[in-house]
Write a structure and sequence with these properties.
Radius of gyration: 20 Å
Number of helices: 17
Helix content: 40-55%
Strand order of the largest sheet: 3-4-5-6-7-8-9-10
Number of strands: 10
Largest sheet: 8 strands, parallel
Strand content: 5-15%
Shape: globular
Length: about 375
């Protein structure tokens, strides 16, 4: 992992801030310029992974992109203040052949057969017409990529969740598009939790259509003042916390009881939930006064883990071992956050976890995602 450490050290020295994973607007505004990132092994092809005598395909469910014309629809003020810049390698429209080649070369170097693309939602604050235009443009470009490279790309569509009735219409249309497997969402909508009743029609439609919900955090805005200072805490702490809150709300507010067929993928290993899940089983027993007697869950909180999937972006074999011990190997999938260089070697990360059987490794690398997302192209 020397390449990654050296790169991040140099980026920090140069004042570079990567903005693909929920950096707040104040941090983004301080970023004078972006540095292009290239995978250290770009130009080389990773050797095929063989497990139990069979080729193991690799599916990365956590990879990002942007489309310039969609961002432009937000207006000039947004471009000045928003945390949606990314590296040049984020911009991979079919028409951008150079950037697309860089992306495919990096996937080959990592050994990734397919990326399931998502766009961190930057449009939740937009009015109805603007949000409709942005989402339509994004989803069109995602479908174009999937159609042009069906063995390399699938995608989670975006929705204007701040307008739930519109979001239902958008989801219905998107799930008919090439390669769309589900929905990419933030950790909340303008600090409103997904468990709120106004979002229920969206989850009902997702359940009906078999659309998987990919939850990617956007930091925890309520704590932005405490995140200031060294360490990029808005991301380091804020992102995992945002996901943890989102998952716990869906459980404790009874949302997952209402929609038992809804499948979720949580980015970054599910935040802190997978590390400390059993505490949830004790909360209402220890302090019933802090729980709602009108909400009676059908299962223990930890049993809802079976309805969730978690990406393997937890950095070490020991952390992956623990995640698998908590949620089960069948619930873990590869996630890299590409093109942000959090995990350049996802195959090596999984293969180094010696507690996993060959079958479990094959599942985590791609089998679990292919089954969940109904991917047959690879």
């Amino acid at each position: 992992m020397t390449h990654r450490r050296d790169f991040l050290k140099g980026a920090a020295a140069g004042g570079v801030i990567f903005c693909g994973c929920g950096v707040d607007a104040a941090q983004a505004q301080q970023d004078a310029k972006q540095l292009s990132y290239r995978h250290p092994d770009s130009g080389k092809k990773h050797k095929p992974v063989m497990l139990n005598g069979k080729r193991a395909k690799v599916v990365d469910v956590h990879s990002h992109c942007f489309f310039k014309d969609a961002i432009d629809l937000m207006g000039p003020g947004f471009k000045t203040n928003a945390a949606v810049k990314g590296t040049p390698e984020h911009y991979i429209a079919v028409s951008n052949a150079d950037n697309l080649k860089v992306r495919l070369d990096a996937m080959d170097a990592m050994g990734v057969d397919m990326e399931v693309l998502s766009i961190n939602p930057f449009w939740y604050g937009a009015d109805r017409d603007r949000a409709a235009a942005v989402v339509k443009t994004n989803n069109m470009h995602l479908a174009e990529l999937c159609a042009a490279h069906p063995k390399r790309f699938s995608a989670f569509c975006g929705l204007a969740l701040q307008h739930p009735d519109l979001a239902v219409e958008q989801l219905t249309a998107a799930m008919k598009m090439p390669g769309i497997r589900g929905i990419g969402v933030g950790g909340s909508v303008l600090q409103t939790d997904f468990s709120e009743a106004k979002f229920h029609p969206i989850w009902a439609k997702a359940e009906e259509l078999g659309a998987v919900l990919f939850i990617h955090p956007q930091s925890t805005p309520q704590l932005s003042a405490r995140f200031k200072g060294n360490g990029w805490l808005a991301n380091t702490i804020g992102n995992p916390l945002d996901t943890t809150i989102a998952l716990q709300k869906l459980i404790f507010e009874g949302t997952l009881d209402k929609f038992p067929g809804l499948k979720l993928i949580a980015a970054h290993g599910g935040g802190y939930f997978g590390s400390y899940a059993p505490r949830s089983d004790h909360a209402c027993f220890v302090s019933p006064a802090n729980c709602n007697p009108d909400i009676v869950l059908k299962k223990k909180p930890t049993e809802y883990l079976n309805q969730m999937y978690f990406d393997a972006l937890v950095f070490t074999p020991e952390a992956l071992r623990h995640l698998v011990a908590q949620v089960g190997a069948s619930q873990v999938v590869v996630g890299t956050d590409h093109p942000i260089p959090w995990e350049d070697y996802p195959i090596e990360h999984v293969m180094a976890t010696v507690t996993l059987t060959p079958a479990q490794k094959a599942g985590i690398l791609g089998g679990n995602a292919a089954k969940l997302l109904k991917i047959t192209e690879i």
